[in-house]
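Do me a favour: review this protein, sequence plus structure tokens, and tell me how the chain folds. Record follows.
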Amino acid sequence: MEVAQQSKFVRDIIDTREDAESPIVLEEVTGDVLAKIIEYCEHYQNVSLDNNDKNNDVPQCLDGILPWDKQFMEVDQDMLCKIMVASNYMDIKPLLDLSCKTVANMVRGKSEEEIYKQEFTVSMEVAQQSMLLKDMIAAREDAESPIVLKFVLGSVLAKVIEYCEHHQNDSLDENNALARSYDISSWDYQFLKADNVMLALMTNASKILRIERLRDLCAVVIGNLVCGKTDEEISTLFNMRINLPGEIRELVDNGKTWTDFRVQDQPSLE
């Protein structure tokens, strides 16, 4: 109980639920991220995390982070972002502060180019699934020069590349036809079962990169997630404030735009 109650979100659920034995479902946090958060909370279970100065009695590193915390946060950037999002969602302020401080230390003294630089090498078949990249490849003078994408995070681009590598043997005609079909392959269905924040970021990236089929697939999944939900519920789903325009709100309330989509050979969710 001491571990669970370090999350204000979980604590509020515990205080208000009628059945004390019923499980608490955290739909927005994946198992690997939750395991890291539990590790953090177990370490600090005997410390009052309501006290923002919990570290005053312990000597800190020069960067303002305790040795144990520093080691705990030695994860890849994708996991670091997920921990930050999850700690915000679960309302664990000390862990959110630690995540933000870790990111701040990582980018301190670096230029914008150094902060965002992350290199990927892909085949021409993979790259050309993006109409943006296809146009940039055709227009560049030096065929060996790298293509810089400033508006897509590395962790998100890695997911987009995973999608494009899986579909690199699809012809463009087939790809476009599939984008408008009412069927989603089992692989695509599993791939899009990302956490909701990543799903929203992939939607934006596929729009920027002009990967029409991935954009359409993301829209289908998001459509099913938000169908019938209020703006407040949708904001909670994606951990961001969302106010849908009236015409979109009508579609969401009626569920007209997504109910006909189905998954081919849909796998068990168990």
